[in-house]
Amino acid sequence: MSVLFTAISQDNPVQKQDVQKVLDQIGVSLDPEEENDFHALLAAVHECAEEIQQLPDYQPVPDRALYPREDIHRPSKEEQVFGHAWAHKFLIRGTTEAGFLSGKTVCLKDVIAVADVPQLYGTDIFPPWTPTTDATVVTRVLDAGANVVGTTTCENMCHSTSSFTSAQGTVHNPFAIGYSAGGSTSGGAAIVGGGLADIAIGTDQGGSIRIPSAFCGCVGFKPTHGFVPYTGISSGDAIDDHAGPIAKSVLDVALCLDSISGYDGIDDRSLGAPTYGLTTYAASMQAQHGSLDGFKIGILTEGFNHPIVDQRVRQVVFEAAYKFKSLGATVDEVSIPDHLRGPGLWTIQQRIAGSQNLLGHQHGRRGLYLTELEQCRLPWTTESFRRGFAATKNVIINGLYLADRFPGLYGKATNQGRQLRDAYQKLFEQYDVLLMPTAPIVAPRHGEKGSPMEALKPSMGITINTAVFNVTGHPAMTIPVGFAPSNDEHHLKLPVGMQIVGGLWKEDKVLRAGYAWERAFDWKKEVLN
């Protein structure tokens, strides 16, 4: 056995009745004749746990001498933009040596650890916590020459594709005050879309990079699962977790990916990623000069024809897709019927694993665990639960119910996700990329924090084309391709995003397609009346 058994100390708090109390949680009872032995064993493991608990944590130590943190503060009312898009303002200057991101300004979603910068997580369920380490992506953008200028508001516990749920305040769309900036990387997309930073780094577990990018007229890239290390980033479901950039151009997205991708020696999700520092996506993309000769593109029928997709959004994206023909590509309509199963598979994964994560039951990965965050947000109490946004409460309720009533369901959903991944991969043997609308609608008006159903309604259905690729892990990028009228005000035109999806580890093809379209056409002139 792994625990060396010794005599139980007199101050050990474990009592005999604690053994049965533990088993009561799963509805079984202990043989009375075994009670003494299991009491002794439980007391021994308690002492082992106390010993480990007292050890200092082991986290990467940021180089504060090379990268000092300047002027960390919560923004004043006068400093805020687009409602409450900033979480914290500060400055960390990048290296003076020439790098891919030299001279660029970068902001970070407020779930990405920056040492000495309090993290709000979009919530008031628990107080702000202050990391002692930098996420890998932070170190890498600084090494690439970027200046990190702040953290940006995220939605409440990252559980919304709307932008009114953060406890710190609403984030407005840069194209229309009162309208959603999308979520959960709401602040970052608004700030980049509004021209106040060059790049935002966000996270995406169901569309949280791509949906706000589509709503705010940005390019947003969710790379292959594990392409960018998740080290130092607050996790939801480790299977669905992705980190990636938001920018105004495909070129800046490519430069950022060249800077932040690759295994960091910590996150086991990134073991299959290209070697850090060796990708040259931006240079290779530019060398193609926007040509797509020989490129084969599939228009995914199920991504366009879902009944929730607004007819005007469908039209804008469909017309944008066929413009690839003028760039030398072959464009065909293709079908994967199981595409429509993706949201259901994602829901099961996210609810079960997400609830376990929220309850502090992380396990099964080799990587960096943010133990300070766990100590801050646990244990749950009735008071903290009631302060939660409706989506967070729903994740916990759904997850506990599913785990109890449907044993093995998480595993089956994961297996089905792999089957769906293989179906896409088979199609990618014939086609370089697939196209579809990123979001089914343009940005809606903000919702209300009323009843749970009222609070959740504005996000329902938004991820029908995005969450599936969190399940399968495929790289997916949204680019703006035009404007369509708002459902509320016909005279108001809002951005439409087209999603470009590639085979696993085929970021180069996704970038090449997006760059070619962006280089040839001005999306701001594509306005549907």
Automatic annotation (TrEMBL):
InterPro entries per record: Amidase (IPR000120), Amidase_dom (IPR023631), AS_sf (IPR036928)
Protein origin, superkingdom: Eukaryota
Gene Ontology molecular-function annotations: catalytic activity
Amidase domain sequence ranges: 96-511
UniProt-recorded name of the protein: Amidase domain-containing protein
Species this protein is from: Trichoderma harzianum CBS 226.95
